[in-house]
Amino acid sequence: MTQDVITAHEYAERIAWPLERKIKESWERIAAWVSYWGKEASLSFSGGWDSTVLLHLARTCPHIDGHALPVYFADTGTEYPDIRKFVKSTPGVTWVRPKMKFHEVIGKYGYPVVSKRVAQYVGEVQRANTAQIVRLRTTGWRENGTHSPMSTIPQKWQFLIGAPFKVSDKCCDKIKKAAMKGTGHALVGVRAAEAKNREKVYLQYGCNAFDIDRPRSWPMAFWTDEDVREYTAVHNLEYCPIYDLGYHRTGCFPCAFGVHLEPWPNRFQLMQKTHPRLWNLCMDRYGFQMVFEFMNEWLPAKQQISFHWSDYTAREARKHQQAELPMAV
């Protein structure tokens, strides 16, 4: 079966589809996946908002018996307690666990910082036993003399090579994906608009990728935040209340991928306010305070990563004070 390769123009058209059509299209992707894999088809349920909508779509799909579809939750030990409680309240979900724990992964492989690509490249250089991989990741020059800018660690982040801690992109593989091993080929509630790399993958393979090394299905890839909220309201779905605390994403709480790009309050600032025990766990046991402090020594002041709620409240207070000051005449 061929992939649903689409153009950027087609993607834009799909994003603009009304919700009613998106529902029907997602049902077709779900049914095609289940038809292709049969008893090997499953659904990966994270307890997040997108995942909650996907589960409802699958169980109401008119083309399959959605309630017969196996549903799995990867109990990595790094979920917010709110998510765990919500998943426990969702019927028909099987919990699966990985062999490694988060602190074991960062101890053996390294910390998830910046992005998966940057973390992968930095980790490769830190572990490098050949000059070629160092040359490729720091300059982009391949052994055959060709140049690949995308194979290079951005200059801004090359200081991480000499960090007093290891850097790696292995967390997801060793915890979440490892937990899901043996659970079949899963439908996943991923949306292309969430990240540029996801959009790139979606344009290349579409929703259902059957014939790749790791087959995957994103039936909601063309949905937007507004679609998810509208669907939830129309169907009166219960969702994890952690979103009402200000969180936009609810993945592994110690993950630091992309935190430098988040508007304040970022996830760690918010965590200190809403889940102080988890924040202390991240900063002390997992060592993220040391990681962020080292990174801030190298980053420009405006790009430094704050992990304190008080920094956010102080900044907001300054904004409020400045707004009340009379204009100079």
UniProtKB/TrEMBL annotation:
Pfam families: PAPS_reduct. Residues 42-255 form the Phosphoadenosine phosphosulphate reductase domain. Transmembrane segments: none annotated. Gene3D superfamilies: HUPs (3.40.50.620). InterPro entries: PAPS_reduct_dom (IPR002500), Rossmann-like_a/b/a_fold (IPR014729), Sulfate_adenylyltrnsfr_sub2 (IPR050128). This is Phosphoadenosine phosphosulphate reductase domain-containing protein. It comes from Pseudodesulfovibrio sediminis. The lineage of its organism: Bacteria, Pseudomonadati, Thermodesulfobacteriota, Desulfovibrionia, Desulfovibrionales.
